[in-house]
UniProtKB/TrEMBL annotation:
This is DUF3050 domain-containing protein. InterPro entries: DUF3050, Haem_Oase-like_multi-hlx. It comes from the Bacteria. It holds the Pfam family DUF3050.
């Protein structure tokens, strides 16, 4: 796993920038959180597109079925899909995207843009057309664009690296404390969002994170070119997350907070 360790060392400065981002110090009201969620939900959505790209590449979804060439990775990606697409929350199966949207509704964040985006896709529009027309923020549009640029390469090791390292949510204690305090003040209306954050910390650290590292190791093997390309994709993904945070921070500073939607 020395290749993984080298890649993680390369990403360490970017992770430090992400963890210390001033966005986390900028939340003062629930309206700030609503504005954050209205952009961040697009990152939650396109995470599933990365994951589904991996599932299509590493497993067989065709009929007649044939076994794929990556026995370890196909098991890992199917386990991750199960948790991300059909987790259990209060006794019912929900994807983490659906859970996040539920959390938005409970705290009063508008789902107008993300709902319009998904309707456009369901109606047959390209993601490019739908995201341009739905009212998504510039930061959300840029972030989704970077994700689909990686997907368009069709190179599984690059996609796996962006998936594994680009979506590492380093959630500072100060942000979790803000959510806890606001949840108490709002009589539990952030309970689902708190569960979402805690669940991601749990599964990313104990389950999905280690699985994804093993998947990258199998896909790259001992090929130094693939490891370099994986590192490039991972770094670009983390930089895209930093840019997303920059965009949300700018909107918090420049745009009046939206009126709560209850």
């Amino acid at each position: 796993m020395h290749h993984v360790e080298a890649l993680e060392s390369r990403l360490a400065p970017l992770y430090a920038r992400l963890a210390a981002h001033p966005l986390y110090l900028s939340f003062e009201t629930v309206e700030d959180l609503q504005l954050f969620m209205q952009t961040h939900v697009f990152a939650v959505w396109d995470f599933m597109s990365l994951l589904k790209s991996l599932q299509r590449a590493l497993t067989c979804v065709d009929v007649p079925w044939t076994p794929s060439a990556f026995p370890e990775s196909r098991r890992l990606v199917n386990e991750i899909v199960l948790g991300e697409e059909s987790d259990l929350y209060e006794g019912r199966a929900l994807s983490h995207f659906e859970l996040y949207r539920l959390a938005m509704q409970q705290c009063g964040a508008s789902t107008v843009a993300i709902d319009a985006f998904l309707r456009g896709i369901a109606d047959g529009e390209s993601w490019e057309t739908s995201i341009a027309d739905c009212g998504a923020s510039p930061a959300a549009r840029a972030f989704v664009g970077e994700t689909f640029r990686v997907i368009a390469t069709g190179e599984t090791h690059r996609i796996a690296a962006a998936f594994t390292f680009g979506r590492e949510d380093l959630i500072p204690d100060m942000f979790r404390g803000f959510i806890r305090d606001q949840n108490e003040r709002l009589s539990g209306r952030l309970a689902t969002f708190r569960w979402y954050l805690d669940r991601h910390i749990e599964v990313d650290g104990d389950e999905h994170g280690p699985m994804a590292l093993r998947m990258i190791a199998e896909l790259c093997g001992d090929d130094p070119v693939k490891w370099q390309q994986a590192g490039d994709a991972a770094a670009a993904a983390v930089e895209a997350r930093i840019a997303l945070w920059d965009g949300i921070l700018a909107s918090l500073r420049e745009t009046p907070a939206p009126a709560p939607v209850y």
